[in-house]
C-alpha cells in the first residue's frame, strides 16, 4: 500500500498493512496482534493468553510472499457500520491504482503493476519482522485469455514485468532482505481461482480445450535462459 496524498493517508496505508498482513505476521514474530488492531477492534478481537503468545512467537520457519500489485490507500471518513468487519475496521479505502489519472506503475492487460513496491514491502518486512527467511511464492502478470495463439506467444510485456521485478528484488537482497527463492506465476496457463480461463499468467501457452497442446511463450524462453546463467 502507498499513501495517496495526505499525512492521514500515510497513516491509513500503515493501518491497511497491519490489518491485512500484520494480522498474521505480528503474532508469529512478536506474539500478539498489531497494536492498532487492538486499539480499533477492541473486545471483538480475541486475546492471546501468555501461553498462546509464547507458542506462536518466533514459530515462523519462513515467510511465503505473493506480490502482484501496490494500491493507493486513502483515509476513510469515520463511520459506525451496522456489521463491523475486517473490511470496515481499518478506516481505509483501497483499490486505487492511479492518482489524478496517473497510474502508479505499468498498465498491463489485467492490472497495474509497480515493481518498486516489491522492494518496499521486502524492506518493511525486513525492518519490522526481524528479516525472516522469505520465499517469493508468486509474482507475475496476466494477458487476456482470448488472444490468438501467435499473439499470446509474443508476451514481451510479461518479460518486462518479471525483469523489472527481479531487478527490484536484487536491490532488496542487496539491502539485506533474506530472500531465498523466487517462483514466477506461472509455468503455464491455468484455471485461475478468481478469473477462470479469462486470463493467462503462464510462460507456456496451453490449449484449454486440449491441455496436451502446449507451446513455450517468449517469456518462457527468456526465463529459462535467465535462470540458467
What labels would you give this structure?
three-stranded parallel sheet; 38% helix; 18% strand; alpha/beta; TIM Barrel; 2 domains; 229 residues
Write up this protein:
The chain is of the alpha/beta class and 229 residues long. It folds into 2 domains: 88 residues, no CATH class; 125 residues, TIM Barrel. It has 7 helices and 14 strands. The strands form 6 sheets. It has a 3-stranded mixed β-sheet with strand order 1-3-4, with helices on one face. Strands 2-9-11 form a 3-stranded parallel β-sheet, with helices on one face. Helix 4 runs parallel beside helix 6. It starts with a strand and ends with a helix. The mean pLDDT is 93. It comes from Arabis alpina (Alpine rock-cress). This is Thioglucosidase. One of its GO terms (molecular function) is beta-glucosidase activity.
Secondary-structure map:
Elements: E1 2-3, H1 7-30, H2 35-41, H3 50-56, E2 63-66, E3 72-75, E4 92-96, E5 98-99, E6 102-103, E7 106-107, E8 112-113, H4 115-128, E9 134-138, E10 143-144, H5 149-153, H6 156-175, E11 179-182, E12 199-200, E13 204-206, E14 214-216, H7 218-228
Parallel strand pairs: 1-3, 2-9, 9-11
Antiparallel strand pairs: 3-4, 5-6, 7-8, 10-12, 13-14
Count of helix runs = 7
The name of the CATH superfamily of the largest domain reads Glycosidases
Poorly predicted runs: none
**CATH architecture descriptor text of the largest domain:** Alpha-Beta Barrel
CATH topology of the largest domain: TIM Barrel
Q: Helicity level, as a percent range?
A: 25-40%
Encode the helix/strand succession as letters.
Answer: EHHHEEEEEEEHEEHHEEEEH
Class derived from helix and strand content: alpha/beta
Mean pLDDT across all amino acids: 93
Instruction: Outline the biggest β-sheet.
Output: 3 strands, mixed
Strand proportion:
15-25%
Distance between the termini: 33 Å
Q: Give me the count of strands.
A: 14
Q: Radius of gyration, rounded?
A: 20 Å
GO biological process, one term: carbohydrate metabolic process
Protein name: Thioglucosidase
Active site: 138
GO molecular function: beta-glucosidase activity
Amino acid at each position: 500500500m502507498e499513501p495517496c496524498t495526505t499525512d492521514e493517508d500515510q497513516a491509513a496505508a500503515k493501518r491497511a498493512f497491519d490489518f491485512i498482513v500484520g494480522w498474521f505476521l505480528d503474532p508469529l514474530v512478536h506474539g500478539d496482534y498489531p497494536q492498532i488492531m487492538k486499539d480499533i477492534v477492541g473486545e471483538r478481537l480475541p486475546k492471546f493468553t501468555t501461553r498462546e503468545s509464547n507458542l506462536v512467537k518466533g514459530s515462523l520457519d519462513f515467510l511465503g510472499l505473493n506480490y502482484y500489485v501496490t494500491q493507493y490507500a486513502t483515509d476513510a471518513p469515520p463511520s459506525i457500520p451496522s456489521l463491523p468487519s475486517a473490511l470496515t475496521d481499518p478506516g481505509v479505502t483501497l483499490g486505487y491504482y492511479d492518482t489524478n489519472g496517473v497510474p502508479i506503475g505499468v498498465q498491463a492487460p489485467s492490472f497495474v503493476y509497480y515493481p518498486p513496491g516489491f522492494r518496499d514491502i521486502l524492506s518493511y518486512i525486513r525492518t519490522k519482522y526481524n528479516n525472516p527467511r522469505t520465499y517469493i511464492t508468486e509474482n507475475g502478470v496476466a494477458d487476456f485469455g482470448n488472444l490468438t495463439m501467435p499473439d499470446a506467444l509474443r508476451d514481451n510485456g510479461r518479460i518486462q514485468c518479471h525483469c523489472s521485478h527481479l531487478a527490484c528484488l536484487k536491490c532488496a537482497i542487496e539491502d539485506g532482505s533474506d530472500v531465498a527463492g523466487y517462483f514466477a506465476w506461472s509455468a503455464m496457463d491455468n484455471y485461475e481461482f478468481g478469473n477462470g480461463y479469462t486470463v493467462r499468467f503462464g510462460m507456456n501457452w496451453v490449449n484449454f480445450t486440449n491441455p496436451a497442446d502446449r507451446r513455450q511463450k517468449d517469456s518462457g524462453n527468456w526465463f529459462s535462459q535467465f535462470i540458467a546463467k
